[in-house]
């Protein structure tokens, strides 16, 4: 991961020096975001970070907070994220609540139909769940055991699953090698990735989602789709009633699948926005704030009694 970061910084630095942008907009907690924020901060270019202030409990959280400290503007999903940034010493005037951009797409009326998605990706199931499992880079020693428990529980449930490959973090090959063994099974369809709009339609119509992806604790609740969140990767994220937490152990996952299968649809949760993030962002761009924000940041001690 460190080599990927170094290469990304080098490539993006060359691009930025050629293009000379006035503003760099980055999103989330991936290495690409850290590279973009690093280049922008060191090159004296305003950096706007979308969805800072989130928590997860993995190295991704550390990356996200590092990105926030390198950024000059914060476009956050909700008041809880804004509070965390103030606790990190960020100045209040730099923080703007716009909601999560993904929800704009999720609530769009232009998503493809389920029939279109099933035809495009040759999905034969009328009823299915979605599975996404990523490595936790601080738990590589137990990863193989966790993956084995996860796969065995899915197989034993005798349900149909659409499975998405893991991300490219360290340890992903352990998961990938185990998933490949399911290719010949009629109960599983495996995909390296899906177009976001098509994936949303699958998610909206799924019986549930299971794994440790942020989709289970952020996107799924928007549709009221129940989710099983396994292990520590999303430990500090997700409070919706549709989310079941379980240990990365076979018995715990088995029990969670039984429970989630009985839940049905839950009330939608819009704690991260109501589908108007784009408008909020555009309104901000039309103001002077993004174009005249100071590049010299000052640590602002958090004072809860002051109304901050």
From TrEMBL:
GO molecular function: hydrolase activity, hydrolyzing O-glycosyl compounds
GO BP terms: UDP-N-acetylglucosamine metabolic process
Residues covered by the UDP-N-acetylglucosamine 2-epimerase domain: 2-263
InterPro entries recorded: UDP-GlcNAc_Epase, UDP_GlcNAc_Epimerase_2_dom, WecB-like
SUPFAM superfamilies: UDP-Glycosyltransferase/glycogen phosphorylase (SSF53756)
Coiled coil spans: none
Gene3D superfamilies: Glycogen Phosphorylase B (3.40.50.2000)
NCBIfam families the UniProt entry points to: NeuC_NnaA
Record's protein name: UDP-N-acetylglucosamine 2-epimerase domain-containing protein
